[in-house]
Amino acid sequence: MTTSRTIRPDGGTIGPVTVDGAKITLVIPAAAFPVSVQITMTRPNLPAVGSAGTAGYKAVAGVGIQVRGNGSAYPGTFLVPLTLTIRSSSITSTSVVVVWNGTAFVTEPGITVISGAAVVRFDTDRDFVVLYPLATTTATIPGATRAVTGKRFIEEGILACAVIVLGASGVAVGRRRSA
Fold this sequence. Notes:
- The chain is of the alpha+beta class and 179 residues long.
- It folds into 2 domains: 3-133, Chondroitinase Ac, Chain A, domain 3 (Sandwich); 148-179.
- 18% of the residues lie in helices and 40% in strands.
- The protein is built from 2 helices and 12 strands; from the N terminus they run E-E-E-E-H-E-E-E-E-E-E-E-E-H.
- Strands 1, 4, 5, 6, 8, 9 and 12 form a 7-stranded antiparallel sheet that branches. The protein has a 5-stranded antiparallel sheet with strand order 2-3-7-11-10, with no helix packed on it.
- The longest helix is centred in the last third of the chain and has 28 residues, at 151-178.
- The protein is elongated.
- The model has no long low-confidence stretch (mean pLDDT 81).
């Protein structure tokens, strides 16, 4: 467990709490719950999450959110969505946020990911993980030619245009002399 706090129907904020180097803030708006609830933030096991089943990525941040009322899991959905912000220098605009659905990690729609932060709005208990894309390496193909920048193509295009202009000029001069 990372932290746990009682939230009354008038709402509140938990955090920022540091979880594995990421700063986590949870905003609970007024009227999200009709009664006081206990909200617990849990720390994920990021090495065990690994790529969360998403090839080319690795888990860099995450948090679990559990909501309990009267000692039991909160039933159904929250009356108003909560807003979770995960801040970390490991989060880039190409990072992906996945959610545990009980069987596997799946992408969650409506998540905002920018460099340094992921913002999620949700209305049920969730376990969130931010995935960072691993650097891709380019494979060398045996016997392949080297990459070309196009510079040579531009030079050859300019030369071809010059030849056409000179050729057209030569034809015009030749017609004047024969006339």
